[in-house]
Design a protein that fits this description.
This protein is of the alpha+beta class and 394 residues long. Helices cover 57% and strands 17% of the residues. The chain has a six-stranded mixed barrel with strand order 2-3-10-5-7-6. The protein has a two-stranded antiparallel ribbon with strand order 8-9. Helix 9 crosses helix 11. It is elongated.
């Protein structure tokens, strides 16, 4: 029997037991579908993160408390306004420094309300972190010095709170305090999984009073040019080392931010793919089980064929091909389902998804490999069957 004939016999056997075959390949379908979908979501998230970080500019440094190295214990170091002032003095004519604190708050207006991220920032935040103003103006030094209750809205926040009404000079309420809207930011989209258009910016000092804290979450330093990044980094390390230990703060460039985010996404994708792989393993066990049942049901057929001269290798190949075809069908259906669900996720939800050719090839290849691995034992059992004993079996 040739390979083509084995394929034909396998398809005939599968068609003869459609329901059983369908239920058998369901585990393989779910496994392949999960791998394609999860890798697509991971790739989409990576593309969004990369675009968001690159949008910040190649000459921007992020300074955060603690260490970004895996295995490092968190520290209690926290920045203050004095750190921004010290860095600004030392980096004068070479870089600009800003800082931010953020908290989720209920924001209300006369026409709407939303729970969103309220960010306290310094006056240079719009220039340093690229927040171009669409209408009105951004916060200034006077707003910061007097902790004035003024606010600048992201595009989505402005629409959600005021609809189509011009929000400039109108009032919003944040944490029970009233703020006057003085500007709106141009639409920016998402970055690092954060919807930047839904954010509300207030003076850092006003935010500290609102949140009841005196610290700053993150510092941002934009060098005047990329060539000066090393010099700026060295100055930041020297200034902060006067108050903190070396492992109590981290300075990340664009490449390092992408590296950290990439490692996190790689780990997350690997864990999710491993979980999906469990479905493939379960599916393979189901295929092996159903093939053993098939061998048992077709014992007399096997005995008759061997009595007529069929070789052991031909019988083994026939059942192995049947297992591979079964898993191959599951792989095709799983790939189709994964691609379809990735499109649905990309089109109808905020979840980014980007189907990659290698994930499709990998998932389909693994499904075929599952057929080979879990089909070997039933196939060898069928091939080694004694023809006389097989013909005598009821």
């Amino acid at each position: 029997m040739t390979f083509i004939e084995s394929m034909r016999v396998a398809l005939t056997a599968i068609r003869a037991n459609r329901l059983r075959s369908g239920l058998t390949v369901l585990g393989v379908v779910i496994g392949v579908l999960s791998v394609v979908l999860l890798v697509a979501v991971g790739s989409g998230a990576r593309a969004v993160v990369t675009a968001g970080v690159e949008d910040l500019g190649s000459n921007l440094l992020l300074v955060a408390p603690g260490s970004f190295e895996f295995g490092q214990a968190p520290t209690r170091s926290q920045f203050t306004l004095e750190d921004i002032e010290s860095l600004s003095r030392q980096l004068r004519d070479r870089a600009r420094v800003t800082g931010s604190i953020a908290s989720g708050e209920r924001v209300r207006s006369d026409t709407g309300a939303a729970f969103t991220s309220v960010i306290g920032v310094t006056a240079d935040f719009d220039d340093v972190v690229n927040r171009p103003i669409a209408r009105g103006e951004f916060l200034n030094e006077s707003d910061l010095a007097t902790a004035r209750r003024v606010a600048v809205l992201g595009a989505t926040a402005a629409d959600g709170l005021f609809g189509g009404i011009d929000p400039i000079a109108r009032q919003i309420t944040v944490g029970g305090l009233r703020f006057r809207v003085i500007g709106t930011v141009e639409p920016l989209g998402s970055a690092l999984g954060v919807d930047r258009d839904s954010q509300v910016y207030v003076p850092l000092t006003a935010a500290q009073r609102l949140f009841g804290i005196r610290t700053i979450d993150t510092l941002f330093v934009r060098a005047d040019d990329r060539d000066g990044l090393d010099d700026v980094t060295a100055t930041i390390e020297r200034v902060l080392s006067e108050r903190f230990e070396p492992d109590e703060f981290s300075i990340l460039s664009q490449d390092e931010i992408l590296g950290v985010a990439g490692r996190i996404l790689d780990t997350l994708t690997l864990v999710l793919a491993a979980i999906a792989g469990i479905s493939l393993l379960v599916g393979g066990i189901g295929v092996s089980n159903i093939m053993l049942v098939s061998v048992s049901e077709r014992t007399r057929e096997i005995g008759l064929r061997k009595a007529l001269g069929a070789r052991t290798s031909e019988i083994t190949r026939q059942f192995l091909v049947e297992a591979i075809v079964l898993c191959g069908i599951g792989g095709v259906l799983g790939v189709a389902g994964g691609v379809g669900l990735s499109y649905v996720a990309e089109r109808f939800t905020p979840v980014p998804a980007e189907v990659t050719w290698w994930s499709v090839a990998l998932a389909f290849g693994v499904s075929v490999a599952v057929g080979v691995i879990f089909g070997v034992f039933p196939a060898r059992r069928a091939g080694r069957m004694d023809p006389v004993a097989a013909l005598r079996r009821e």
